[in-house]
Design brief:
This protein has about 650 residues and is α+β, with helices and mostly antiparallel strands. The protein has four domains: about 130 residues, 6 Propeller (Neuraminidase), CATH 2.120.10; about 110 residues, no CATH class; about 50 residues; about 260 residues, Alpha/Beta hydrolase fold, catalytic domain (Rossmann fold, 3-Layer(aba) Sandwich). Helix content is about 20%, strand content about 35%. The strands form eight sheets. The chain has an eight-stranded mixed beta sheet, with helices on both faces. A four-stranded antiparallel beta sheet has the order 1-2-3-4, with no helix packed on it. Strand 18 and strand 19 form a beta hairpin. It is globular.
C-alpha cells in the first residue's frame, strides 16, 4: 500500500511540475494581435531632410492613403502637402528647398506619373500627364533646383527616352532618341548624360561618351550572365567609374573601371561568400564612405574614418542588434536622417546634427506594437538534395516549444531576388498566430554569386522547387514541423512556387495561398509588360522559350495543367490591374479547379495590381488568409502540448 501511495505521489508531483512548466510556456505566449495592427499604415515613415537642412518631409496617412507631410526641424507644426485619396503615393523626394516631386500610379497599373508641389501644398503640377505612359527617374539632379532627368516610354512603349524636365513648369526637352535597344541611362556628377546600356536580348553593352556633344561609343559587350554595372563616375567626371563587376569572378566585387581603356583599374573590395550590394560616397567631401554586402545580415565595410566613427556612435547609443541606414542628408552633410531596423519592429528614424553632436529619435514606425511580443527571425541553412547550401530564415512563434509546430513555407518572389533578415509583417502575423515560418533563398536567389544564380535557369518547378521541398523535409527531420500541418504561401514567383508545390508534391502540404502568382508559363510570357520586351530573349533563356522544345518542359511545370494532382486546400488572391502577372494567371487556375469540381477560395481586388497596396485590401486579404490557414491547419492543435 505504501508503495502504491509513493508511486501515486511521484506521479502527482510530476504532473504538477509539468502543469507548472506548461503554464509558464502558455503565459509567455503573446496575446493575439489583430491583422489591422500588423498591416495598417505607419503613422509616419519615409523621412527625408530638405537640401538646406531646415525641414523634414515624411509620409503619413490621410483618409487611409499615405501622403506627404512637412514640418520644420525645430517645430511641431505640420503642413499636409498632398491630399491623394485613391491610392498611396509610391515615393517622393525633395527637388529643391521649396518643391517636392512625387510618384503615383492608378490602381496598381505601374504606369507611374510624376507630380511636383511646393512644401506648403501649393502649385501642384502634373509633370507627365500621358495616358498609358510610365515615367522613370534617371537623375534627380541634386545640384539643380529646377530640373531633373526622366525616362518616358511615350514614343515607343517598349523603351524609354531620356528627357530633361523643368519641375516648375513641366517643360521638357528630349536628350536622346532611344534607337530601340537601350535599357538604361547614366549621368555624371554634373547631370550630363554620358552612359547608356544597350541589349540585344542576351548580350549587354555599355556605351560611353566624354561629353554630351559626342556620339556614344561601345565600350564592352558581355553576356547577360556577366555583370559590369557602373554606379557613378569618379569625382573628376572623367572616364573612370565605380562599378559592380563579376567579370572573371563568381562573386560580384566593387571595382574601379576605365571606360576609355576598357579595363578594370582596381578591385576595391570583394567578399568570398556573397556579392557586393553597393558603394556609397560623400558628395560634399568627394570620398568613398562604405561598401555594403549581405550574408545572413547586411554589413558595411568602411572606407572612410569619419563614416566609421559615425556608425560606431549609432551602435553605442542605440544598440548592436540593429541595421543602420543613412537615408538622407542636407547638402552641407552636417544633418542626417538614419533609419534603424531590426527583426522585431518596423524600425525608427533618428535625426543626427553633426554640429551639436545630437542624436535623437524622431519617429517609431509602429509604436502600437510591442517588440517583446514579436518573434525572432533566425538565420538558418540546410543542404539541398544535390549538395547546395541553402540559406534562409526561420521564425518560431513566441512561447511555444519548437516541436511539432504548424509551419508556413514562404518562398520569396522574383525569383531573382532574396529574402533578408529584418522585420516582416507577414511573418510576424503568422508567428503571432502560432505558426513557424520558413523563408529560404533557393537557387537563383541573388547575392550568392553567378554560379548559384545560373543554377536556376529553366528550373522553375524543378530544382528550384526541390530546394523549397528540401527545406520542408529539413524542418520535419529536425522535429520542428508537424508533417501533417504544413502550408505554403507566396507572392509573385512565390505564388508560382506555391502552386508548383501543391502539384509537384501534393502530399506535402495541407493548405496553400497563392498571391498574384504565375500558373501558366505560356500565358505569362505572352502578357509581360511592353517595357520587358527588350529582355525577352534573356527571359527565354532563364525561364524557357515556348517556341522551342522548351515548351514540353514548360507545360510539365505549369501548375494549371496539373490541377488534378492537387490535394491541398487552396486560396488565390489577385489584383485586376496587375501588369506583371496578368489576372488571367489566377482566373485560369480557378476555372480549371472549378471544372474539376474542386472548391477554391478566390479574392479579386479591382483596384489593385501586383500586390495589395490599399490598406483596406490588405486587411481583407490577411484576415481571409489567417482564417483560411486556421481552418486548414489549426483543428489538430488540440492534440499538441504547448
Amino acid at each position: 500500500m505504501r508503495k502504491i501511495i509513493f508511486i501515486l505521489l511521484i506521479i502527482f508531483v510530476a504532473a504538477c511540475k509539468e502543469t507548472k512548466e506548461s503554464k509558464e510556456i502558455v503565459a509567455a505566449i503573446p496575446l493575439t494581435i489583430s491583422v489591422e495592427d500588423f498591416m495598417k499604415n505607419s503613422e509616419q515613415r519615409s523621412f527625408q531632410i530638405s537640401p538646406d537642412g531646415t525641414h523634414f518631409a515624411y509620409m503619413a496617412p490621410y483618409k487611409k492613403r499615405m501622403n506627404i507631410h512637412v514640418r520644420k526641424i525645430d517645430s511641431d507644426s505640420v503642413t499636409q502637402v498632398t491630399k491623394v485619396e485613391d491610392r498611396d503615393i509610391a515615393g517622393y523626394f525633395w527637388a529643391s528647398n521649396d518643391r517636392l516631386v512625387y510618384v503615383k500610379d492608378d490602381g496598381g497599373n505601374e504606369n507611374y506619373h510624376l507630380f511636383s508641389i511646393t512644401k506648403n501644398g501649393d502649385d501642384e503640377i502634373g509633370l507627365t500627364p500621358f495616358d498609358g505612359v510610365r515615367a522613370e527617374i534617371i537623375d534627380d539632379l541634386e545640384n539643380n533646383e529646377n530640373e531633373m532627368i526622366i525616362g518616358l516610354n511615350k514614343r515607343i512603349p517598349q523603351v524609354f527616352d531620356p528627357y530633361r524636365i523643368n519641375i516648375n513648369t513641366g517643360e521638357m526637352k528630349l536628350l536622346y532618341e532611344n534607337p530601340g535597344n537601350i535599357t538604361g541611362w547614366g549621368t555624371d556628377h554634373d547631370g550630363k548624360l554620358r552612359l547608356a546600356l544597350k541589349t540585344d536580348g542576351v548580350n549587354n553593352s555599355i556605351l560611353y561618351r566624354a561629353n554630351e556633344t559626342d556620339k556614344f561609343k561601345e565600350v564592352i559587350t558581355t553576356n547577360f550572365k556577366e555583370t559590369l554595372s557602373p554606379l557613378f563616375f569618379d569625382f573628376d567626371n572623367g572616364h573612370v567609374v565605380y562599378a559592380l563587376s563579376n567579370l572573371g569572378r563568381d562573386k560580384t566585387a566593387a571595382v574601379k573601371y576605365d571606360l576609355k581603356e576598357n579595363k578594370e583599374v582596381e578591385e576595391i573590395y570583394s567578399h568570398e561568400e556573397v556579392d557586393i550590394n553597393n558603394i556609397y560616397y560623400s558628395d560634399k567631401r568627394k570620398v568613398l564612405t562604405s561598401i555594403s554586402y549581405t550574408t545572413a545580415k547586411t554589413h558595411q565595410m568602411f572606407l572612410d574614418e569619419q563614416t566609421k566613427e559615425f556608425y560606431a556612435k549609432l551602435e553605442t547609443e542605440i544598440g548592436e542588434n540593429n541595421e543602420y541606414y543613412i537615408t538622407s542628408s542636407n547638402k552641407n552633410e552636417d544633418k542626417f536622417l538614419v533609419y534603424v531596423a531590426n527583426d522585431k519592429s518596423r524600425g525608427s528614424y533618428y535625426f543626427f546634427d553633426k554640429q551639436s553632436d545630437e542624436l535623437r529619435k524622431i519617429a517609431d514606425l509602429s509604436p502600437w506594437l510591442n517588440p517583446d511580443q514579436m518573434a525572432s527571425m533566425s538565420p538558418i541553412k540546410y543542404t539541398s538534395r544535390d549538395g547546395l547550401t541553402i540559406n534562409g530564415y526561420l521564425t518560431l512563434p513566441v512561447g511555444r516549444e519548437a516541436k511539432n509546430l504548424p509551419v508556413i513555407i514562404n518562398p520569396h518572389g522574383g525569383p531573382w531576388a532574396r529574402d533578408n533578415w529584418g522585420y516582416n509583417p507577414e511573418v510576424q502575423l503568422l508567428a503571432n498566430r502560432g505558426y513557424a515560418v520558413l523563408q529560404m533563398n533557393f537557387r537563383g536567389s541573388t547575392g550568392y554569386g553567378r554560379e548559384f544564380w545560373e543554377k536556376s535557369f529553366k528550373q522553375w518547378g524543378q530544382t528550384m522547387q526541390n530546394d523549397i521541398t528540401d527545406g520542408v523535409h529539413w524542418l520535419i527531420d529536425e522535429g520542428i514541423a508537424d508533417s501533417t500541418r504544413v502550408a505554403i504561401y507566396g507572392g509573385s514567383y512565390g505564388g508560382y512556387a506555391t502552386l508548383a508545390g501543391i502539384t509537384n508534391t501534393p502530399d506535402l502540404y495541407a493548405a496553400a495561398v497563392d498571391y498574384v502568382g504565375v500558373s501558366n508559363l505560356f500565358t505569362f510570357m505572352e502578357t509581360i509588360p511592353p517595357y520587358w520586351e527588350p529582355m525577352k530573349e534573356m527571359i527565354y533563356e532563364m525561364v524557357g522559350n515556348p517556341n522551342t522544345n522548351d515548351s514540353i518542359m514548360m507545360k510539365a511545370n505549369s501548375p494549371v495543367f496539373q490541377v488534378d494532382k492537387i490535394k491541398a486546400a487552396l486560396f488565390v488572391a489577385q489584383g485586376a490591374n496587375d501588369p506583371r502577372v496578368n489576372k488571367d494567371e489566377s482566373d485560369q487556375m480557378v476555372e480549371a479547379l472549378q471544372k474539376k469540381g474542386v472548391h477554391i477560395q478566390y479574392m479579386l481586388k479591382e483596384d489593385e495590381g501586383h500586390g495589395f497596396r490599399n490598406e483596406e485590401n490588405r486587411f481583407d486579404f490577411y484576415n481571409a488568409m489567417t482564417e483560411f490557414l486556421d481552418e486548414n491547419l489549426k483543428p489538430k492543435l488540440e492534440n499538441i502540448k504547448t
